[in-house]
Structures are given as structure tokens and as C-alpha cells.
Amino acid sequence: MKQLILDFLPPAPTTFDDFVRGDNAELLFQLGEWVRGEVRALYLWGESGAGKSHLLKASLQRLPTQVEVHAINARNEMLPQHIAADAALIVDNVESLDTEQQIVLFDHFNTLREGSGRILVSGTLPAMLLPLRDDLTTRLGWGLVYQLKTLSDEDKMAALQRRARHLGFELPQDLAEYLLKHTERDLPNLYRQIEQINNYSLSKQRPVTLSLVREALKTN
Known about the structure:
By secondary structure, the protein is of the alpha/beta class. 48% of the residues lie in helices and 11% in strands. Helix 4 (99-114) links the parallel strand 3 (88-92) and strand 4 (118-123). The radius of gyration is 20 Å and the shape is elongated.
């Protein structure tokens, strides 16, 4: 029964509409401009769990189909050796690139800058503080640079309630507050907890209540 439940769960959305903006309205606007090609280079940084990967995936989904796109997570993927001068390149977790890959990315910056391409990169720190080659950190400042600001507690609760509705149930305010007080507070973890609670509720065929939330958290 548990496997059947998991098979029919809707995938977690990764769109701009699903992202609770908090104090990041200007950043979201500029990402939209990047998608349209009005902004050619954007470096996005913020703490782990702030939502950088979500925004990069949302940007990827919005790109026109005729654009040649390369999107990698530097933690476990390699950059392409060659890209077209008018391509779109998205690099998540840039601080994970080894020395050789840093050289490749530097060359890609130059290729895209000389052509009409665009690049979107994320990292955990301001570019000049990353453990990367100096010439590459300079390139990361080629275009716009934005910090993804952490959401307030109110925004996090709104995000949890939106994710719960996507899964098919309502999360009352008091239960959202309970999750913030009793679990790790970064959004990826909070979303995992919501999915765990939903799975537990479905498997037990019980509504989401405080007692059920407590039981579900103990099963993690």
C-alpha cells in the first residue's frame, strides 16, 4: 500500500509561482529577465536550503525551446566541453567545481560573453569569497549579483501550507508553527517533513492532526 501511495503522489513543483518570494521580489523579476534574454549573466548566492536550486530549475523550465540549454549541478555533474556562443548555461553549486572544471567554466563565460549567450550560476557565498580561481570569481561578477534572502517564519509557514495544498490536504496554522519549532527549519527539510506527514496520513487513512504529525515525525 505504501508503494502505491508514493507512486501516485504528484511531483513537487519547481516553478516561480510555487516559490514564496519573501524579500526576493527583485531577484525573481531579474530571473524572469534572464529567461527572456534581457539579462545575460546572473550570479545567485545564499545559504544552503534557501531555494537556489528551485529557482534555477524554474528558470530552466521557462527557457524558450529553441535555445540550446546546458544545466548541471556541479556537485555531481560535469560541464560540457563545448557550448555554442548563443547557448544558455545554468550551473548550480559552483563552489563544488574542481580546478579543471573551473577552467572550463571560465572558457564558457568568455564564449557566451563574446556571443549572445546567457549564464545563470548559484553558489553559497559571494563570488569573491568562494574557493575558486580569481579569474573565475571575477567572471561571476560579470552580470547581476543577488543574494537569495532567507524567508521569515511567516513566509516559511505560507510555503508549507502551499506545499500541503499541492499534496491534497490543508495544513492549519498551528501545525505549521509546530513544524517550525520541532524540526530543522530549512525549506528542503520542511518540505520533506510535509511529504512524510502526507504519506503517513494516507497510509493510516487518518486526517492530519497534531497527534498524527507527532507520530509521523517519530517515524523519520
